[in-house]
Specification:
By secondary structure, the protein is an alpha+beta fold. Helices cover about 35% and strands about 15% of the residues. It has two domains: about 10-85, no CATH class; about 85-145, no CATH class. A hairpin with a 2-residue loop joins strand 2 (about 105-110) and strand 3 (about 115-120). This is Malonyl-CoA:ACP transacylase (MAT) domain-containing protein.
Length: about 150
């Protein structure tokens, strides 16, 4: 079993336990991000159990990790550890991943200059080989797409 939260909280407890709005931690990004991932993957598993399979998979933002996992592009461990780079898909494929395709892969192409990759030590490799390329771990500290 892959642990992503260091046993700091339990998904079912957060979803089922009755709490006041002030007590609930569901708006905490460290809770909601993996919760959304789990729900997206669980819904897909439910559809598959009913013999309903997607003909294509489209994702956006926080859904990229679940989509890459559901599409079979990443295993669970890699899906929860991804890095966004400001490079084209061609640059990533032919430059960055050249020689290390055994340990990294393209997970999501979000735009012509925004590619999400996953793999062991990919951030370290990028920092050494491409120090001037924008890179950021897919780790969100605040609510995403949230307007008050």
């Amino acid at each position: 079993m892959t642990k992503i939260n260091n046993d700091e909280w339990r998904l079912l407890k957060e979803l089922i336990e009755k709490r006041t709005e002030q007590e609930s931690r569901i708006n905490d990004t460290n809770i909601v991000q993996p919760t959304l991932f789990a729900i997206q993957v669980a819904l897909t598993a439910l559809f598959v159990s009913w013999n309903i399979y997607p003909s294509s998979i489209i994702s956006h933002s926080g859904g990229d990790q679940a989509a890459a996992f559901v599409a079979g592009c990443l295993n669970l461990e890699d899906a929860v550890r991804m890095l966004v780079v400001s490079m084209s898909e061609d640059e990533v494929e032919n430059k960055l991943l050249k020689g290390i395709k055994h340990s990294a892969c393209i997970a999501v192409v979000s735009s012509p200059r925004r590619v999400t990759i996953s793999g062991d030590e990919i951030q370290q490799i990028l920092s050494i080989s491409y120090p001037n390329v924008f890179k950021a771990c897919v780790r969100i500290e605040n609510a995403f797409h949230h307007i008050k």
